Amino acid sequence: MPGKLKVKIVAGRHLPVMDRASDLTDAFVEVKFGNTTFKTDVYLKSLNPQWNSEWFKFEVDDEDLQDEPLQITVLDHDTYSANDAIGKVYIDIDPLLYSEAATVISGWFPIYDTIHGIRGEINVVVKVDLFNDLNRFRQSSCGVKFFCTTSIPKCYRAVIIHGFVEELVVNEDPEYQWIDRIRTPRASNEARQRLISLMSGELQRKIGLKVLEMRGNAVVGYLQCFDLEGESGLVVRAIGTACTLDKLSSPAAFLPACNSPSKEMKESPLVHPPSHGCRSTHNSPIHTATGSRLTQNFSVSVPTLIYTGMGSGSAGKEGGPFKALLRQQTQSALEQREFPFFTLTAFPPGFLVHVGGVVSARSVKLLDRIHNPDEPETRDAWWAEIRQEIKSHAKALGCHAVVGYSESTSICEEVCILSASGTAAVLNPRFLQDGTVEGCLEQRLEENLPTRCGFCHIPYDELNMPFPAHLTYCYNCRKQKVPDVLFTTIDLPTDATVIGKGCLIQARLCRLKKKAQAEANATAISNLLPFMEYEVHTQLMNKLKLKGMNALFGLRIQITVGENMLMGLASATGVYLAALPTPGGIQIAGKTPNDGSYEQHISHMQKKINDTIAKNKELYEINPPEISEEIIGSPIPEPRQRSRLLRSQSESSDEVTELDLSHGKKDAFVLEIDDTDAMEDVHSLLTDVPPPSGFYSCNTEIMPGINNWTSEIQMFTSVRVIRLSSLNLTNQALNKNFNDLCENLLKSLYFKLRSMIPCCLCHVNFTVSLPEDELIQVTVTAVAITFDKNQALQTTKTHVEKSLQRASTDNEELLQFPLELCSDSLPSHPLPPAKEHLESASSNSGIPAAQRATSVDYSSFADRCSSWIELIKLKAQTIRRGSIKTTVTVEKASPVGDGNFRNRPAPPCANSTVGVVKMTPLSFIPGAKITKYLGIINMFFIRETTSLREEGGVSGFLHAFIAEVFAMVRAHVAALGGNAVVSYIMKQCVFMENPNKNQAQCLINVSGDAVVFVRESDLEVVSTQQPTANCQSSGTEGEVTT
Amino acid sequence: MTSELDIFVGNTTLIDEDVYRLWLDGYSVTDAVALRVRSGILEQTGATAAVLQSDTMDHYRTFHMLERLLHAPPKLLHQLIFQIPPSRQALLIERYYAFDEAFVREVLGKKLSKGTKKDLDDISTKTGITLKSCRRQFDNFKRVFKVVEEMRGSLVDNIQQHFLLSDRLARDYAAIVFFANNRFETGKKKLQYLSFGDFAFCAELMIQNWTLGAVGEAPTVPDSQMDDMDMDLDKEFLQDLKELKVLVADKDLLDLHKSLVCTALRGKLGVFSEMEANFKNLSRGLVNVAAKLTHNKDVRDLFVDLVEKFVEPCRSDHWPLSDVRFFLSQYAASVHSLDGFRHQTLWDRYMGTLRGCLLRLYHD
């Protein structure tokens, strides 16, 4: 009996009126876990019932603890008819299962109903007593920590990064079962929610088992996705990176992605799973892949492109023997693994040795009903195939590993596109093994790798290049070769030297396709895919050139399939890497050189392009130092570097299904305007509007070139759906519509967030879906972060030092601040109001009034504000009582205003008990330090309505639903004792409408890491007390480089 | 290409004060967009009309969702759906419950019942305030009235507690509720020159001194039953006011009173002769108002009477405000020297408040 789950139902509030006659509700609660159900008493006639129940105790296996959610149902008691359900709360108790995370879940949870939305709140307390059973790790994997964050979590350090873990479970979708025809939509939705909750619990447990097998203790970069395959079933799959993490109890660096691993880490005790005991298999309705038998369906594998910097190359000569040695080392470390993939996008310093380029693979599959959920091998085999392909692509680039790896699907009817992409890389083997690396090699490694530009150096051998590439000597160290353009899916390494700022670059593309069935459809799609990939790439390259930049980070290409079209959307953050050569311009060439006016037109365009490049360089502050030819050295053959795209050979050279995607000319980046299509391309290049001044945007964690973040953040989700007029559906019209949709969406975001200027939209994540024939849906989630414009970049260094110093001194005990942000516990030292005013005033200064109009939470301010306001209220009350009631003096100042009813000072507001919970897609919170990870948040909601018009139409419906989802995430985090969600992601937002029937349905899946953070300003006090610690930390930092 | 769906949801709910005002003022989305365009926001931000339209729609939707919560402000504080910083919550509430001077003057003292829907149409036409805004303001008055109607304790405190309004706005609402409850006539033509502020000032004085709650505040009466009503005038007090009649009915007393006042004010008043000539009329007016207050009808006409019997006569003789103040102080104080008059406390309770009211009402 490994665990005892204890639940107490305290109270409810704001319940809906269930009895029309009395305008009240007779509510009671059912608490269900597994097959056991408890009930509270009925609390008669109240909308704010106080049940104050006993502790309901469930004695359960820890396997169940991991799989099952706690299900709390609030009902209205009815003597004569069936009890009416008010709503439900599902609580994932996983965070209570590992020792360092939350110990209790306690708080107000929104009561959620799939038809009515949130209907009041319920206060619940949940505890788990885990018995220390040595036999436990067999089917369950309690104790393995999960993180959505795609870097080493802030208060941990990586002892070993083991590698890729994946798992997949399938089941029938309850929505498509026969029983669905006779049950209510509510029952069906709830069955689905519960099933997915069960499946993800099981999936997580199984991944955990794999991690334990690898002797790890955590999964980082955990990404779990649902494939709603419709008739053919429901797939829940997850990938992640198994690691052995050590909690940092000693001083640690604050800003870098993780603590620099020093050599002592080898001495640190590894976490080993205890001996395996025996357990009977749990009988669950969900099944996973275990076998290897394969039933091949119809499938088409698509030739895949590898993006790197490419041009015509010159041979290099040096660097051979060392590279070989390194390769050997890494190879041996990685070869034991089936898939040397890492879902991480940011790494400990020194982890990433070289980056080869983006590798991706896609495959078009026909879905078939999963006949036997016990054997989901088909899906497994599909993914294995794709991963194999990725692996060989990486090999072709001279790399043994893939980092920033991710997988996705797009499903339309019975066609499914599976995609995987990542960045081929050479890694430092130190992190992959424990204690097997020779010291001397490591030393050589350190000597030979210039930290700042090392990752740009080509991993492949110049003499034996996998594709014709244009190489130059690194502009930083002058020793190694670098490509002229670099595309990656990872975040910009923290030690990389960047010139100027970065910017969001998007390539957007639509292609019409004929409606077709089954195989014909799949074939049509796979024929289109390579062309789309090529065009997306060309667009990216053109836009990158136009920005005067030479590298892309965080590249994510999404191909979406619809009934009659394919959409491609690529997002990345462009930067100018100092180590890479200056990009050449774009040259336009016409096809009909004899026509005079045409020539003129061409030259006019050329001028416009050149102007735009110049303007962009200024805008993004790209002014690389001029380097004279002599310094660079003779091996560089051409004065100007130009780039082109070439298709590389994928895999080994025996596969020669070459499409010649290269432009005719070998050494210049030339756009040929030979038809209207190309003309339009050029036009669209020039119509991309840069963000208004004061705004920057990127899709990576942080904006290259901006370091001085201030603490104000605003995470948001924006959804747009447009209906295409079916009459003029041409590729051009479609492209224009899609382009406008994205551009307008961005413009709206800039407008809405104008009060935050200067600010940067970070982690901008676009998702495209095609819910119906003529509908395009774009969902964007991002976070706007303010930064200090005035603070010069030089100061960032001292800033980092300061934070290092600050971080170095905080001990665990000192960080145990009360978690509740509510002002119930009125702080004894509320900040002097005057100071607050100064702060807010200074942050506003210099911004025109119009831009200040929309006001966003000045969060640091808000945290304290309630208590401050409370204080004022108290004061105001005393004044009132003191003067007005007792005096009858008439001559006192007139108590009633003279008609000026507006613009009054902020009135007192009663005590708010709702704590502020921040949400961000980033792995950190600016101006704050994460002190504790409380566990993973992974929630799935369905909302349905049969009164769409009454709920404000589709916009009103979805707006309310997303707000409710945010609320439920915040409530869960707050109940865990946290005050933020980091690495938040909305993985799915499937919206379906049927306006004729006045119906709509939406499914949303979100995840993130619940954390506790402490403001740096609060830490400052602590750090000044122990200045000596600074020396200590710099000491450890120094050791790393020896 | 048409936009089917277009939403923006922030983890912290975005509140645009300007759009909120437009929404409160009852403008439709189209009108609001037009007004925003006119404000020059497009030039300042470089946005397009489409962006503005989408932004306005978003805000309107948010406000619409918030409105349900604004009807019971404590709910706004405890709800979990919208994360709004406390200062913003306060602003939302305060603005929602703010009202237009022009509107409140129209309904002040009227019964807050459903029947006035048609009246709202008229008020809207008359004041130029949109019907939607009128409805909101009227519903606010009604809602506050309903909630505090049966409550014990201080009216202002009750309003503040249940609607989380600022002190000043809560007092305004107390005045509105008080007027609605006592149905004071404020719409007569001769009262048109008075602002809501004037009435609210008087209401506050009356609540403080003439209601049951006023007595309850005194430390000598700890009985909480007495703490009951801030909204109703103290019936006993009104009954007692009849006793003051002696001041004008008793000829000797009236003469003595007059001579006391005249002696004290001789040479100090610019309008001394007018005062002397008018003293008996004025005094009769003021005392008769008091004596009549036992009848509901006369209570309703209190302000009409005060203006007719005191403000207008003085105004026609061009009394400066300072002279009115001198006169009223002396008029009230001199009664203490009248040996035959036994109702000094009653007089002070009546005259103290009345003096304050009259001074406030005395202007052009």
TrEMBL record, chain A:
Keywords (A to Z) from UniProt: Calcium, Cell membrane, Cell projection, Cytoplasm, Cytoplasmic vesicle, Lipid-binding, Membrane, Metal-binding, Protein transport, Transport
Pfam families to which the protein is assigned, alphabetical: C2, YbjQ_2, YbjQ_3, YbjQ_4
Keyword set includes NAD: no
Domain C2: start-end pairs: 1-109
Subcellular locations according to the entry: Cell membrane; Cell projection, Ruffle; Cytoplasm, Cell cortex; Cytoplasmic vesicle membrane
Annotated GO biological process: insulin receptor signaling pathway; intracellular protein transmembrane transport; positive regulation of D-glucose transmembrane transport; positive regulation of protein targeting to membrane; positive regulation of vesicle fusion; protein localization to plasma membrane
Molecular function (Gene Ontology), one example: calcium ion binding
GO CC list: cell cortex; cytoplasmic vesicle membrane; plasma membrane; ruffle
Top-level taxon: Eukaryota
Major localization listed first in the record, in broad terms: membrane
Region (Disordered): 630-660
SMART domains for this protein: C2
CDD domains assigned: C2_KIAA0528-like
Task performed by this protein: Required for insulin-stimulated glucose transport and glucose transporter SLC2A4/GLUT4 translocation from intracellular glucose storage vesicle (GSV) to the plasma membrane (PM) in adipocytes. Binds phospholipid membranes in a calcium-dependent manner and is necessary for the optimal membrane fusion between SLC2A4/GLUT4 GSV and the PM.
Protein name (database record): C2 domain-containing protein 5
Lineage summary: Eukaryota, Metazoa, Chordata, Craniata, Vertebrata
From TrEMBL, chain B:
One Gene Ontology cellular component annotation held by this UniProt entry: nucleus
A Pfam family matched in the record: FIBP
Membrane-spanning ranges: none
A GO MF label: fibroblast growth factor binding
Swiss-Prot/TrEMBL GO biological process terms: platelet aggregation
Record InterPro entries: FIBP (IPR008614)
Name of the protein in question: Acidic fibroblast growth factor intracellular-binding protein isoform X1
